[in-house]
Design brief:
With 382 residues, the chain is α/β, with parallel strands linked by helices. Helix content is 46%, strand content 15%. Strand 2, helix 2 and strand 3 form a beta-alpha-beta unit. The chain starts with a strand and ends with a helix. The structure holds NADP nicotinamide-adenine-dinucleotide phosphate.
């Protein structure tokens, strides 16, 4: 029985993790759950999964959540940064699922690694902000970071059983999002409702907007760079609208190994939870006769400037990726709040990056201050 601490259990990934747990009650138990503000759903999850610790954003939410429980319910309800750290480092947890959205995931994920916990990583933003710090700490502590992002799970699977020195290139696939073929002139007028409709994946709002701008793919390039310790030059984004091939690895002999599955996050989630075993989720493989064809295109960096900005930030290194990530979070929220148009997301990030004075070989405090500076600057730009 593997004991799980799930950070972000009320989100799209968190709920899918709990679906897998529910399907395999003899394989997994839950010792800690964390949410942000959705205490109604968290309350239901606490009753269903009986963890020992639950965490919410602030004191007021914690008090409201406690009112739902009678003395004798053995769940400790904590809040804020200390609470998230307590959940991430909870003594009996064997695996910490890092599935909060955004920069909020960084400190709990780092704390879990420092405590030697194996990580199932969905929160790509933490690797974008502090890839070097997180991967070095994981190496020092002998901690495995197992990707949950479907593309990185695919790469992880394509690398298994092969010699790392034989790797030539990573082909990171992207659906292209809902605006792959929309005329560029119309992009400025897109409403949040339209941008939130993703053609192949059902995800939380931030990652859905990131998928529409292709910033998600840019963040994933940086995630892959750190997770698999490969140079940026070896990572190529490939647009693949059907989302059946989740990524590929090219080897020295020009063989290409790919991982294919229908787009269902339970597949990479279950693999991360049960690695190296595979669970029978009761899902079907792709029906190739029905699919007929799989298609591929080169990404258009002019149409999707966010992808170009992320590649630039990855190449520039230093504190640029943290600034890119923070400015993107501010711009996405501003778009969802209708304060800026869809087409201004990239401009906000670009202006913020242009004003940044980077720090070389950043340590955690440098990263956190670059993040705070970028949020203020991007907010002013908005
Ligand atoms: N969804 C996918 O299919 C998918 C695929 C690959 C990777 N990812 C990555 O997985 C992560 C989660 O994505 P998601 O789609 O599951 O997001 P989501 O549905 O928006 O859920 C986010 C989770 O984080 C919590 N949260 C939000 N702000 C927080 C804060 N300041 N402090 C603590 N907790 C906070 C939310 O709590 P409340 O809702 O209770 O406020 C919720 O539990 C992201 O990094 C995303 O890029 C997602």
């Amino acid at each position: 029985m593997k004991r799980l601490a799930i950070l972000g259990s009320t989100g799209s990934i968190g709920r899918n993790v709990l679906r897998v747990v529910e399907q395999f009650p003899d394989e997994f138990s839950v010792v800690a759950l964390t949410a942000g503000r959705n205490i109604d759903l968290l309350g239901e999850q606490l009753k269903r999964f009986s963890p020992q610790v639950a965490v919410v954003l602030d004191d007021k939410l914690a008090r409201r959540l406690r009112q739902q429980f009678v003395p004798g319910d053995h769940v400790e309800i904590l809040y804020g940064a200390d609470g998230y750290e307590a959940a991430a480092t909870f003594g009996s947890a064997d695996l910490v699922v890092s599935a909060m959205v955004g920069s909020a995931g960084l400190l709990p994920t780092l704390a879990a690694i420092e405590h030697g916990k194996a990580i199932g990583l969905a929160n790509k933003e933490s690797l974008v902000m502090a890839g070097e710090v997180l991967t070095r700490t994981a190496r020092d502590k002998g901690v495995a970071i197992i990707p949950i992002d479907s593309e990185h799970s695919a790469i992880f699977q394509c690398l298994a059983g092969h010699r790392r020195q034989d790797l030539k290139q990573i082909l990171l696939t992207a659906s292209g999002g809902p605006f792959l073929d929309k005329p560029t002139e119309g992009l400025d007028d897109i409403s949040p409702e339209v941008a939130l409709r993703h053609p192949t994946w059902d995800m939380g709002p931030k990652v859905t907007i990131d998928s529409a701008t292709l910033m998600n793919k840019g963040l994933e390039v940086i995630e892959a760079r750190w997770l698999f310790d490969v140079a940026l030059e070896r990572i190529q984004v490939v647009i693949h609208p059907e989302s059946i091939i989740h990524s590929m690895v090219v080897y020295q002999d020009s063989s290409v190994i790919a991982q294919l599955a229908l787009p269902d996050m339970r597949i990479p989630i279950a693999y991360a939870l049960s690695y190296p075993e595979r669970l029978d989720l009761g899902l079907s493989p792709p029906d190739f006769f029905e699919l007929g064809a799989l298609t591929f295109r080169e990404p258009d960096l002019e149409r999707f400037p966010c992808l170009a900005l992320a590649i630039e930030a990855c190449r520039a290194g230093k504190t640029y990726p943290a600034v890119l990530n923070a400015a993107n979070e501010v711009a996405v929220h501003a778009f969802l709040d209708r304060r800026i148009g869809f087409g201004h997301i990239a401009g906000t990030i670009q202006e913020t990056m242009a004003k940044h004075e980077p720090v070389s070989n950043p340590r955690l405090p440098d990263i956190l201050s670059a993040d705070a500076w970028a949020r203020r600057t991007a907010e002013e730009t908005v």
